[in-house]
Write a structure and sequence with these properties.
The complex is a heterodimer of chains A (170) and B (90). Chain A is mostly beta strands and 170 residues long. In chain A, 12% of the residues lie in helices and 38% in strands. Chain B contains three helices and four strands. Chain B starts with a strand and ends in an 8-residue tail after the last helix. Classes of the chains: A mainly beta (170), B alpha+beta (90).
């Protein structure tokens, strides 16, 4: 009974006037998207969002939805919310080239995840050594579906707790 | 409807950068565009959709176009794939 109530609360993210809230997938320092050292993200070619310089080692789902995508190398995950908003978490820059080194996949592509579900474990000390950057953009990849996007204005976030983005779908 | 098979040659397959480039170019066309691998078909105008196919270098995909400018769309997309999607070939 209690479990059901809790579940319902997690699923019902849109009661706040249609706004969807995303929580931090990792703990760490906020980096503005324009400052991400890769033009594909900095110039918003993939979409708009925010980035985190991680200090924690588990990537959590920032929102409930279907895990549409987990790249086999474990460096990126994508969730589609029930409202059709697509959220991409891309751990580090050019990390596709590491071919999975430093990443352990914890969830299955296609399954339903709740906000806070662990998706990927990252080996932070190793990635700090071998990745070009560990800055992790959290991006809305289908911006035409977004009417309004608000970004938080704080410097440090706690995993699964701090809100990072608020989205009003079209 | 037109479709064409192509071998993906850029070294890291279809991850964020090539997917963003493909969606940007695909969105210039009116036609419905899809990419298919092993029977799974995704919208070529969706970055997350493309990434969910997890296409690796050396794999074969089909581009499918349906609409008024389908021929131009498929010709343009094939040339993008052939040029390595902004990356060196693997």
């Amino acid at each position: 009974m209690l479990k059901n109530l809790f579940k319902r609360k997690l699923e019902n993210q849109t009661e706040d006037g249609g706004w969807i809230s995303l929580t931090a997938p990792l703990g760490g320092t906020i980096v503005p998207i324009e400052k991400v050292p890769d033009p594909v993200f900095a110039q918003r070619m993939v979409g708009d969002g925010i980035a985190i310089l991680p200090e924690t080692d588990e990537v959590l789902a920032p929102v409930s939805g279907i895990l549409t995508h987990i790249f086999p190398t474990g460096h990126a995950a994508g969730i589609t919310t029930p409202e059709g908003i697509e959220v991409l978490i891309h751990v580090g820059i050019d990390t596709v080239e590491l071919k999975g080194e430093g990443f352990t996949i914890l969830a299955k592509q296609g399954e339903r995840v709740e906000a806070g579900t662990p998706l990927i474990r990252i080996d932070l000390p190793k990635l700090r050594k071998i990745a070009r950057s560990i800055v992790t953009p959290v991006i809305i990849t289908n911006m035409p579906r977004v009417q309004q996007l608000k970004k938080i204005d704080i410097k440090h976030v706690e995993p699964g707790e701090s809100g990072i983005l608020r989205i009003l779908p079209v | 409807m037109v479709e064409q098979s192509i071998v993906v040659q850029n070294k890291s397959g279809l991850h964020a950068r090539p997917a963003a480039l493909l969606v940007k170019e695909a969105s210039k066309f009116q036609s419905k565009l899809f990419l298919r691998k092993n029977g799974k078909e995704v919208d070529l105008k969706s970055i997350l959709g493309l990434m969910s196919l997890a296409v690796m270098s050396g794999e074969t995909v089909d581009i499918i176009a349906e609409g008024a400018d389908e021929q131009e769309a498929i010709t343009h997309l094939v040339s993008l794939f052939e040029s390595g999607l902004g990356e060196a070939e693997g």
